[in-house]
Amino acid sequence: xxDKLLEFAELLRANGLRVSPAELLDAxxxxxxxxxxxxxxxxxxxxxxxVKRAREVPVFEELFELYFSGLGEIIRQxxxxxxxxxxxGDREFQEFLEQVERMLRxxxxxxxxxxxxxxxxxxxxxxxRLREAARQARLSSIRRPLEENHFAKALERAVGxxxxxxxLNEVRKAIGALPYDAETRERLDTYVGIRIRELQEIIRRxxxxxxxxxxxxxxxxxxxxxxxxxxxxxxSEAELDRMRQAVTRxxxxxxxxxxxxxxxxxxxxxxxxxxxxxxxxxxxxxxxxVFDRRKREKPQVVVLCDVSDSVRNASRFMLQFVxxxxxLYSRVRSFVFVADIGEVTEHFRNHDAxxxxxxxxxxxxxxxxxxxxxxxxxKTFASDHIGAINRRTTVIVMGDARNNWNLPYDSCLREVRQxxxxxxxLNPESRSTxxxxxxxxxxxAVHCDLVEECRNLNQLYRxxxxxxxx
Amino acid sequence: xxASIDDxxxxxxxxxxxxxxxxxxxxYLASELKKxxxxxxxxxxxxxxxxxxxxxxxxxxxxxxxxxxxxxxSKALYEWEYAKQLLYTQIxxxxxxxxxxxxxGLKAAVERIxxxxxxxxxxxxxxxxxxxxxxxxxxxxxxxxxxxxKADAEFEAFLLELxxxxxxxxxxLGTFKARTIPLVVLTSNNAREMSDALKRRCLHLYIDFPxxxxxxxxxxxxxxxxxxxxxxxxxxxxxxxxxxDLKKTPGISETIDWIKALTLLNVQSLDEELVGETLDAIVxxxxxxxxxxxxxREHLRQVRAxxxxxxxxxRDLLN
Lengths: 470, 319
Fold this sequence. Notes:
The complex is a heterodimer. By secondary structure, chain A is an alpha/beta fold. Chain A folds into two domains: 53-214, no CATH class; 237-467, von Willebrand factor, type A domain (Rossmann fold, 3-Layer(aba) Sandwich), CATH 3.40.50. Chain A is built from 20 helices and eight strands. Chain A has helices spanning 2-14, 21-34, 39-50, 57-85, 90-107, 113-119, 123-136, 148-159, 161-176, 182-214, 216-219, 237-266, 272-279, 312-324, 345-350, 353-361, 374-384, 410-419, 441-445, 457-467, and strands at residues 267-270, 291-293, 300-306, 331-337, 341-343, 393-398, 422-427, 450-453. In chain A, a hairpin with a 3-residue loop joins strand 4 (331-337) and strand 5 (341-343). In chain A, helix 8 (148-159) crosses helix 10 (182-214) and helix 14 (312-324) packs antiparallel against helix 16 (353-361). Chain A is elongated. By secondary structure, chain B is α/β, with parallel strands linked by helices. Chain B folds into three domains: 5-76 and 135-206, P-loop containing nucleotide triphosphate hydrolases (Rossmann fold), CATH 3.40.50; 80-125, no CATH class; 212-318. Chain B contains 15 helices and nine strands. In chain B, the strands form three sheets. In chain B, strands 2-5-8-1-9 form a five-stranded parallel beta sheet, sandwiched between helices. A two-stranded antiparallel ribbon of chain B has the order 3-4. In chain B, helix 5 (82-91) packs across helix 6 and helix 11 crosses helix 12.
């Protein structure tokens, strides 16, 4: 069993779960105490010792199904299928099996253990034999679908399928000589016939299942580690989902960092006057030292996000990130624009982030199918929403500055800059393409305090980190 | 301690807690392996209650530490009783004078006092907080660290010694080793991801909302006065609410509150008006209430339609 658990732990690790040696030891200890009798119990024992993050539970469940219950379940399923084929209920089937046993005794034939296990539907014994055969056939080295056939054949050899077939065919012949009525004979004959074919089928399905659990394609299911460097441009649907999780986690991390920073920063210089005054309570003994409290300002943030097709993913995560961090800012206002500009702050307040983002990106606020026009958006912003900005505001613009040859109106951006504390531009395009074609990044850049490339999550994290109080 | 998994289920059931086989297995393992148990899950699924019931089932004392931001050692582990120490020095002034009598010079006096200072840093002047109490207790206890996710990361690190070795160190007195290993239960609402170091030391149990059958069973025990029909209706409403995207999904405790309120109002069967009036027992935010009302109207309409067709088919049968 230890080998089995070790292998399972390897499998979990290959799928991105972190299982430490100590946890594996716990799992071995746990299984030693609960035993293997019950699947639910085994599952609970392994889950509690090896899986410590709620979001990893689905991956564990899936692998557990593939790895542990797979073979047993297949054998039971075929058992049920046979039952159906013979049109018998549970009780009838049980009685029928007893009849088979009687028949075997009466025919006076010495059968191999495997044949007995199969004919008498001894699922436990069958499973044990197949696992043993799998070990001999080195099934654990299977990787690709093309290898299935080869391994199935190897397994058949290891389990002794050919001899079994011969044996069962002899049993079939012997049935004819038994003093039963025709109906019973026919039923027994059908049953043995099905059983011969069935083992082969079980082996095929077992091999396929085992291959699936080791398939390299399945492996990157929950690799979150490398997603930080993945460009926003190239994300599949599944990656979008993982990215959303990663954004939330990064925001969480940042929040923890800031919490510590704040606590450290809270203490200011030693305040001698107040310490003396306080010490009067204790007869002049300065039990409590008093320090200045530093006041610190939470930044106010205004986010302007381009939501045109080209940069939509980057904007999505920018907005989500800023909103996961809302409590670190005293005030966040968000605007989205393509050619028109519209505020989405209220949406975020009343809906959860996912819904608000959908609303913002689906065209409910501004027409997202228009051609980007940064100039017009800034002009409208400067005339309608300039009140959102005061000297404590950090303005973040997220966009590729591809202005479709429209007027840039960079004077409006300058006006925004003059009223704000700082202006940061995040460009999801690679730095080398700035200023080429219809990109007016260079004209806008002169008005910005900081222009950063922001193509992936790690860059986004660094930028947002810089906005927060130290 | 528990004899088997079935024993866990039976003894928790005696205390009115319906544990699934999965939950019972993990509890059994925690008590067998002497490992702390980290219970995660949404609010209101009975995480804290599990610890309480465990203590009752085992007949152990429950020592509870509610975690919050800024919780530190002096509130969780121990604190010197400065006031008491001061008081004692005042009262013992004469005695101290006596001790110091005949010393030559300041240096000798300090030496003399220093040789006595363990009097003041002894267990007499220590104020044990929950963690130290759990460690030094004569009898085995259940130690509940509630909402550990609310505490700071530093506090979590501080817990590691306690959780892996069941000992704590007080610099002046040395290390206290647990006389009996307490059964430690940590609960977390996942406000923040726990550190890997902590998770490695714990067994992990994720409790989710119960399915319909289990929730009915729980209601039968927690609110036996409610009629079965009402319980079934309430459960199906709550289960459908949980599928909605609410800010605060109603937990088991809310279901229990609601059915108790409904029983007090002598309600036999849910209708739209009643639900509207008592909805705030299960849904706590303004926006959620609006969403829930829409869902409920739909739900009740379906139930009525089903009932309508049922009676219709009854009639068909009669004809």
